Amino acid sequence: MALLARQLYFEAVKVGDELPPLVKPPVDRVQIARYAGAAGDLNPLYVDEQFARNAGFPSALAPGMLAMGFLGELAADWLRGARVRRFGARFVKIVWPGDVLTARGRVTERRFEPSGAYTVDIELWAENQRGELVTRGLCTAQLYYSPEDEARQRAGQPPLLVTAAEEEARLAKLSRAQPARRPEPMPQRTGLPPPARPPFPPPLPPRPGTPPPPPRPGPAAAPARPAAEKPRAAKPAPRPAPKKVARKPAKRPAAKAPKKKPAARKPARKPAGKKKR
Fold first, then answer.
1. Measured between alpha carbons, how far is 99 from 23 in angstroms, rounded to an integer?
2. How far is Cα 32 from Cα 43, in angstroms, rounded to an integer?
3. Does the global pTM surpass 0.90?
4. Better-predicted residue by pLDDT, 277 or 97
5. Model confidence over 97-150: pLDDT tens digits?
6. Do 52 and 62 meet the contact criterion of CB atoms below 8 Å apart?
7. Which segments of the chain belong to CATH 3.10.129.10?
8. Sheet holding 118-127, edge to edge
9. What is the CATH number of domain 10-27+63-170?
10. Any idea what DSSP says for residue 38?
11. SS3 111
12. What is the largest CA-CA distance in the chain?
C-alpha cells in the first residue's frame, strides 16, 4: 500500500515546534448562520440582532464552537494523517461579527508509550485582530515513529518499539557521523579596518631545460633621446633681491624749554604826599 505523500512522523517532531499560524477571513453573519444551522444550535443570539440587543449584547455574536473549529482545522492540517486521540477547548472571550481570528499552536510534550504508540500534545489557541485571547485548546495525537514503522503496521506486523534512550543514542551517532561545520566568519563591523590578507607564496623556480617565460608587455615607454639632444637643465633664475624701503627717521619730540619762574613783584611805592606844615 502506498504511503501518504506528506506524512508527519514522530521522529521529526520536537518539543517547542510551532505550528504555522492559520489566519481566517473576517467572521460574517452568513458564516455564523450556516455554522449554527449545521451544528443544530438554533440560539437566537446568533441570528436575531434585536433579540441580542434586548438581552444586553451590542449585537449578535458568533458561536464559541466556531473558533474551536478553526483550532481543529489548524491541528488537522499540521498532523497530516495522524490519529487524534483527544481534542478540547475552553472559550475565553466572545467572538463578534467582523473579527479576524488567527489560530496558533505549539508542541508541548512527546511521549514513548510501552505499547509502541508515540503521542504528542499540542497546545492550541486563537486570538482576534487586537491580540486578545478568545479560545484555548489542547490536542493529543498518535503518530507513526518513522516510515518503517508505518509500513510494518500497515502490513499487519507489530509496531516498531523505540525507547527514548535508543532515540538519543541514534541522534548522537548521527551527529558524530556528520562532518563538523566550519564557523562562518562574523560580518565585519563598520569603522574597523579590513583583515590583513596572507602574503602570496613566492613563485616556484623554473625547471631546468625549460625556456624562460616571455616578458609581460608593459606600458609603452617614450623613445630615448640621443645624448646630444638632451636639453640641459636650465639653471634656476636668481631671485630678485628684496627692495630696500628707505625708512624715514622718526621725529624726536623737541625738548621743552624749562619754564621760567615768574619774577617776584616788588611792592608798589606809595606816591609821596605833601608834607604837612
1. 11
2. 11
3. no
4. 97
5. 999 999 999 999 999 988 889 999 999 999 999 999 999 999 999 999 999 999
6. no
7. 10-27+63-170
8. 18-23, 102-112, 118-127, 133-143, 83-91
9. 3.10.129.10
10. H
11. strand
12. 192
